[in-house]
Amino acid sequence: MDIVPDEKGKLWIATHHGGLDYFDPVTEKFQHYKHDSSNPGSIGMDSLHTVFIENDKYLWVGAEVGLTRLDRNTGKFTTYRHKQDDSSSISSGSVFKLTTDKNGAVWIATISGLEKFDAKTGKFIHYLPGYSVKAIFKSANGDLWAGATQGLFLYDETTGQFKSYKPDNLPSGIEEILSVIGDKENNIWITTSNAVIRLNTETKIAKVYSAEYGILSSSWNWLNNYLSSDGRIFIGGTKGYYMINPSEMIDNTTPPILNFSKIKISNKEIFPDENGILTQPIWDTKQIILSHEQNAFTIDFNAIDFNSNGPIKYLYQLADFEKDWHDISAEHSASYYGVPPGKYTLNVKAINGEGSMVQKSMEIIITPPWWQTWWAYTVYAILFILLGWGIYKYQKNYILSRERKRSQERELAQAKEIEKAYTELKATQAQLIQSEKMASLGELTAGIAHEIQNPLNFVNNFSEVNLELIEELKSQKSKVKSEENDAIEKELLDDIAQNLEKINHHGKRADAIVKGMLLHSRSSTGQKEPTDINSLSDEYLRLAYHGLRAKDKSFNATMKTDYDTSIGKIQVVSQDIGRVILNLITNAFYAINLQQPKGAVARGVVIKEPTVWITTKKSENNIQIIVKDNGPGIPKHVLDKIFQPFFTTKPAGQGTGLGLSLSYDIIKAHGGQLDVETQEGEMTQFIITLPIK
């Protein structure tokens, strides 16, 4: 069934039932290799299909069932058969063809798939399982091709897998492959059950030779195809060989002439009309526009070829609607039904008997119904916006109406709310005194009470004035209408309105002070918010000073500020940063008060003016808040302890030792740094550094 010459010109012959023969044409003698059950080194089977010489050491023989390898040096055979319990054994069934790839690995085509032999382990790696692979071929450029009943496959080295290969003019692929062989023109010749196909791998065009070219047999012997040294190809069949000389085969490369010939919509032919779908003949039409109700159509096309004697084959595809091409052979119409609105391109290919191909395209646009057009969606958007605007206006008017009814009640209750706020302030004061962590805020109680007294006095005074104005307005109402009365009423109403604005302003001021105290009395939420550092520093400087003045009328100090106005607002937890600033300013006031013993001035002692500086600076990536005093400084031996919890230099009962520890933790939590610089007898300054982002 297969004859292969070796490097010495001797022939290896695989027979159907007689084993393997080795023939020497010079001596005309045969050497026979047959299976001997008593000799484990004999050939493993006698019913053979193919012979393959791997190199000067090994020769392979594919059989009806299994595979055997001859060591040409020792004359011993190694047989490989399928083992049910060994997944790395060769697949079951017949072996049809063998070859080596460009790396020297042996590949075996079998009825159950494709096998790769691992020479190091003696095991088999399986590819295309379940496929009936009858041909395996290595081309001149090293590509590995596999021909199977299910199609043609090309090995992809990047993925390590075989991929289906379909020529451009045969989109359905090539099936029922029996043999694959190459010629010296770098073409691949494929034998199928009913034709011989020449594949140009550069153009990806296949030419089919069948009955019209004199190929009459439909039963091929896939093991007897042969490429001679002069480039001729011999293809064996049941009735002999066909000889093909590729160098003598000159193809007509002129493609056929292809045109569109007719269009039908809902099975009704459309003719050119000035105001119709076609304004000119269809073969001159580049674009057709149809409505959404005309989405069932058929387009005919025809090709003419004066040079090829074979039939013309047609393929078509509606791009952007489908991916695959329709292979309709000699039919020449494309029909579509229910195509959705969109822009498509109908591509048609015509291929003559020589494999020359031409393509023609036509753009087909199916317009959407009016409710799916862009202007319809614009109307929908406008209606939606109007609906939202109407709902917004309704809600706004409803809220304004409700708030107008409540405004008078809120204004009359303003004084009571201020009194309530004052009560809450006292409760907050008690809570602060009880809080060990925030003990320093107790220093501010008197100062804040002093701050809140002014807006309370304003609220009470303007409330009393408004009551008098209202009584006067009532008396005017009871008088006879006149222009003078109207003017007086208007003047009274204007005065009442102005007084209410002042009540509201001072009430909000008092409310802000109370809310600030409440915020500082409770635990921080940890929520960062944009904060004006300059305003925050200034507020706590003023409140700390008034707090100490309220406790000690003799206390006095100079406060100097230098705020960098370019800082703006940064993201911090304002409660926590405020506590840190308050603690540092309070400590500074405490330090400078130590420098001023009672009666020192009267005794003629020269005392430097007690001063506290607060400065803010902005750099590229951070800001600094500097609190400096000209007090006695911090002794060096305690400098490394001042941030430790419960460490204090104040007398017993005057400090908890938690202020600087908590301040240090708060600044660290913000990603910043709290540093101290001091000179004994001269000054101390604490530097807060906070990142801008």
Tell me about this structure.
The chain is elongated, with a radius of gyration of 51 Å. The model is unreliable at 598-606 (pLDDT under 50). A hairpin with a 4-residue loop joins strand 11 and strand 12. Helices cover 27% and strands 32% of the residues. Among the domains are: 175-250, N-terminal domain of TfIIb (Single Sheet); 257-372, Immunoglobulins (Immunoglobulin-like, Sandwich); 530-691, Heat Shock Protein 90, CATH 3.30.565. With 693 residues, it is of the alpha+beta class. The two termini are 84 Å apart. The chain has a five-stranded mixed sheet with strand order 26-32-31-28-29, with no helix packed on it. Strands 34-36-37-39-38 form a five-stranded mixed sheet. It contains eight helices and 39 strands.
Structural features:
N-terminal domain of TfIIb; 39 strands; 27% helix; Heat Shock Protein 90; alpha+beta
In short:
This protein is α+β, with helices and mostly antiparallel strands and 693 residues long.
Give the CA-CA distance, first to last residue.
Answer: 84 Å
How many β-strands, per DSSP?
Answer: 39
Q: Output the structural class.
A: alpha+beta
Please tell me the overall pLDDT: 84
The CATH C-level name of the domain at 530-691 is: Alpha Beta
Outline type: elongated
Number of helices: 8
Content of β-strand? 25-35%
Helix-residue proportion: 25-40%
Strand order of the largest sheet: 26-32-31-28-29
Q: What is the C-alpha radius of gyration, as a whole number of Å?
A: 51 Å
Largest sheet: 5 strands, mixed
Uncertain segments are 598-606
CATH architecture of the domain at 530-691: 2-Layer Sandwich
- Output the CATH homologous superfamily of the domain at 530-691: Histidine kinase-like ATPase, C-terminal domain
The CATH topology name of the domain at 530-691 reads Heat Shock Protein 90
